[in-house]
Amino acid sequence: MDYANRKRPPQRKPRSANKGKKQAPQRQVPWGIVVLAIILVIALIAGLRFIAGGNPEAPLQSTQDVPASTPEMQAEPMPEKPEERWQYIEELENLEVEVDVPERELGPPKLMQCGSFRQRADAERLKAAIAMQGLESEIYPSNGGTWYRVVLGPYETKRAAEADRHTLQRASIHGCQIWNWNL
């Protein structure tokens, strides 16, 4: 359908029940709302002046009315600032702090497994990628020689294992898991 060349429908004349009477007068201005709006504006202005601390009845003082200071009005100079004395420095110089640090319990050694493969060639490929990052890994056959695990470690702490895992993640070697294993 062509909307651009479409003809407009013919205009209907409004039906009027009162054909001979005058039309309804225009709507009158709601004076109650106008008066309420004026009162609210005046209240807002008065509230702002009250918040600002200004007194609308008080005349503004000019800066020219302030007399210049006379010698009688000048006060004596302030005394010098006393030197502060810190007592805690002298008190803490000779004190020692004793802290009881319990021995860290080392759990079982941690091993990090980075892959488990059916083909030894796949395990060798991962071992070579790990070696390129400067880490040493071992391939352990498991399940009767049908699976080959690529394992790093043993680590004494989990923190050391996490550090190596982050090194491997930066080299896009993901999926390494840290376990409490003994071989």
Protein model, in words:
- With 183 residues, this protein is α+β, with helices and mostly antiparallel strands.
- The protein is built from four helices and four strands.
- A four-stranded antiparallel β-sheet has the order 2-3-1-4, covered by helices on one side.
Task: Supply the key terms.
183 residues; alpha+beta; Alpha-Beta Plaits; 4-stranded antiparallel β-sheet; flat
Number of helices: 4
CATH topology of the domain at 110-179: Alpha-Beta Plaits
User: What is the highest CATH level, the class of the domain at 110-179?
Assistant: Alpha Beta
Strand count, sense and barrel status of the largest sheet are: 4 strands, antiparallel
How do the strands line up in the largest sheet? 2-3-1-4
Low-confidence runs of at least 5 consecutive residues: none
Proper CATH architecture of the domain at 110-179: 2-Layer Sandwich
Structural class: alpha+beta
**DSSP E strands, number:** 4
Would you spell out the secondary-structure blueprint of this structure?
Blueprint lengths: L30 H22 L34 H7 L16 E8 L2 H12 L5 E6 L4 E9 L2 H13 L6 E3 L4
Antiparallel strand pairs: 1-3, 1-4, 2-3
Summarize this entry quickly.
The protein is an alpha+beta fold and 183 residues long. Helices cover 30% and strands 14% of the residues.
